[in-house]
TrEMBL record:
Signal peptide: none
Stated name of the protein: DUF4239 domain-containing protein
Superkingdom, taxonomy of origin: Bacteria
Lineage of the organism: Bacteria, Pseudomonadati, Bacteroidota, Cytophagia, Cytophagales
Short name of any one Pfam family annotated for the protein: Bestrophin-like
Organism: Adhaeribacter terrigena
InterPro entries named among the record's database cross-references: DUF4239 (IPR025333)
Transmembrane intervals: 12-34, 46-68, 188-205, 217-234
UniProtKB keywords: Membrane, Transmembrane, Transmembrane helix
Length: 263
């Protein structure tokens, strides 16, 4: 299991607790080593250490900001794709009303099931059967589209419009799958964030120890602050639909429209 899958499979509270524990332990170890160093006769330049600690904390903040920005942009794209997908299905559903009754009835029933299926996915624990059924519905709709070629007296322009709308649905479905399930934070970046976070907390504790400071209020606060940001990033990046849910309201509105128009 990769780092991304491991992190996304953890409950938010468990990931937060793990990060705080790692951060506090790293801070305490750094503080202990700094105190030992302070008690020896070898003295280090506190200004030089402060500069190094500021640099590593700044690097961690930059990495977290970059990762958060990337993940939030992807989350916004996921929301936009839901709107686009709902619009594409609605357009194709309405265009199906122009088709011969034989295809129109079958296709509209498939779109009704398809919309219900999409609304079940965010709450499903086992999503693979839903994906399989969705792909099967794609094939059934396409078979109906192909059968329109046999309608010799039917206007080709309407058939072309309908097929274009079907292709758009297929393209948006694949795009939504890719953005939601494939375009995620790489494992290497997660490992770097965890390592850099631990190093930063260690450096912070070492600075306190080398200066001869006693344990202060900032010891647990800094690890908690960084842990909150990392958990937010993990939640937005997670493939688990239980976190940072994308609103399905466009699909809900589409479902209402389909039910109202279906006899």
């Amino acid at each position: 299991m990769g780092a991304a899958n491991l992190i996304s499979s953890m409950p938010s509270w468990a990931l937060f607790a793990l990060l705080v524990i790692i951060g506090v332990l790293a801070t305490q170890v750094g503080f202990w080593m700094g105190r030992r160093r302070h008690q020896t006769e070898i003295k280090e330049s506190t200004a030089h250490i402060s500069t190094a600690v500021s640099a590593i904390l700044g690097l961690l903040s930059f990495m977290l900001g970059f990762t958060f920005s990337t993940t939030s942009s992807r989350f916004a794209e996921r929301k936009g794709l839901v709107i686009s997908q709902a619009n594409a299905i609605g357009t194709s559903y309405l265009r199906a009303g122009l088709l011969p009754d034989k295809q129109k009835i079958t296709i509209r029933k498939l779109y009704a099931e398809y919309t219900d299926l999409l609304l079940k996915m965010p709450e499903a624990t086992d999503i693979k059967p839903l994906f399989d059924r969705r792909d099967h519905i794609h094939m059934l709709i396409w078979e109906q589209a192909i059968s329109l070629e046999k309608e010799k007296d039917f206007p080709p322009a309407i058939i072309s419009l309908f097929i274009t709308s079907v292709n758009q649905i297929f393209d948006l479905t694949e795009e939504r799958n890719t953005v939601a399930l494939v375009f995620r934070i790489p494992d290497a970046l997660w490992r770097a964030l965890f390592l850099l976070n631990a190093m930063s907390m260690f450096a912070f504790g070492y600075q306190k120890g080398i200066n001869g400071n006693h344990k202060s209020f900032g010891f647990p606060i800094l690890p908690i602050a960084y842990a909150i940001v990392i958990v937010l990033i993990a939640d937005m990046d997670s493939t688990s639909f239980r976190r940072f849910k994308v609103s399905q309201q466009p699909l809900i509105n589409l479902q209402k429209m389909i039910r109202m128009s279906t006899p």
